[in-house]
């Protein structure tokens, strides 16, 4: 049942990226002509998704599709697939997936991994993102015939499964561990991302940091929610770098968050820096609310890195001159597993 060699030999590796890229074009331009014959259907799916979840703008859906298309480019897929021994899978299992819905199609990687490993994904969709993933995997199944892409979509409680991958918060993880502890499992908790500014960053790098902060309105675990700035760093350079994203405040839900925290913190006489579309507040916590960024000054980079190493369980990625490049936090590779846990190794 090792279908991986068959996929490579049939040169199907390019199909995934091609499908996603064409869907991204539909999302971006509302194009009504596509080679898969699903143009109007997928466009309707996008429109319905933006109504179901106002955070899912067409721009964000487009960006998510483009990111997945990049992730599944043929050379990356081949490198990823050749890293594993798929002959270990003797019989397909039913793998239950409890998916998040904070950004468009955030559960894609889990479903794709289960299907590629030769198992049956049994996916419980988030109520905030229940339309896009079924549409995408329906196309994958039609294009490749891989049975795993014929996903079993669940709206209520998970039926009988052999293993579970559940993504949630620190609170929901306790329930997941209680209910699914008897199965082989991966249970994910809250994570966020941070950036380190030394003062040696170029203007282009500071501008790119804006994408790490504002993509998907900052709702993803790979979004930077806190910046560490050197004691001598001029914070005006940071504000200048992210200014291109000032129109984000025109989105009503983002604006509601901005207005709320601005009023609350001003009433509490907090020490704030406000540029009209984002609030910068000094804090030791990692995760900041939407429309805000926490910041903390540091003296020694080595000491800071030791501190962050101790908080590794809370951090998804670090954006800096030495870690994830500026502007690249939303472009993970297939092997950049959530929480650093190798999903494919778990499945084999």
From TrEMBL:
InterPro entries: Ald_DH/histidinol_DH (IPR016161). GO terms for molecular function: oxidoreductase activity. This is Acyl-CoA reductase.
